[in-house]
Amino acid sequence: MEKDGKSMISKAMGHVSLVIRKCLFSILSMGPVPAHIAFIMDGNRRYAKRHALHQDNTDPNSGHRVGFKSLISNLQYCYEMGVKYVTVYAFSIDNFRRDPHEVQALMDLMKEKIDELMTEGSLLMKFDARINFWGNLELLTDPVRLSAEKAMDMTVHNKGPILSVCVAYTSTNEITHAIEASVRERKEKVQIDVSDLERNMYTADCVEPEIIIRTSGETRLSNFLLWQSDFTHLQNPNPLWPEFSLRHLVWAVLKYQKVHGYLKKHNGETDKNK
Ligand code: FPP
Ligand code: MG
Question: Which residue, of 116, 121, 131, 258, has the greatest Cβ tally within 10 A?
């Protein structure tokens, strides 16, 4: 009985928050809604430390687990808002230099979460979303790579929004990869131009991000989407990634809308997002 009451209350709360989000998003839709938002999900370990999530140090993933929850909520808000592309920086090539225990734990977590995303009823399935994994996937452990490849195959024909997860990724590695691919394509020609490289970037099928958000107040891009961010609005809000919530996302879009006219004017000649 008590359980029924609790589930009714949580259902009602869920309904109310959905109505609030719908109102907020319809207000935001009066301005330009970005087609592509990219996130550098920074601050998971600081969050774990601050909240003493792993005092006994047994689970190096405790912060990343809350970080994954934050990813799912923000993804849902973005998709409800009509953002077609969301790209997240989940693991850089440089992150392989972290404590091997943490790297292995993160690999295990990623496999677990990728498999979870592919189950019926997951957020990606509800939105008929497609998932990409961008990076040097050869560097991943076999179980993560296989799960990632399976997830890409399973969703390749989905017609909804797109989630791109950068793993074993750095922008310079992506550019090198694109140069190599362009050289292979154009072996008979000496000259390679920008359009060759763009065709061979992981991002070839999507527009440039209008906003890149790096949480935890950090102001570096850390080798993320360097090629694709020439006219992107960079934001570095203070909350750690697990704390980044609906209000922060709405604020980020409002800030982008405020400067959109200026960005558009200065991006006039090279705007690839038109
Ligand atoms: C950065 O915080 C976060 C990471 C290196 C990992 C993020 C990964 C996830 C949330 C899981 C994603 C999984 C899928 C399947 C998409 P940090 O470790 O740099 O924290 P700190 O800056 O406080 O040290
Ligand atoms: Mg960090």
Answer: 131
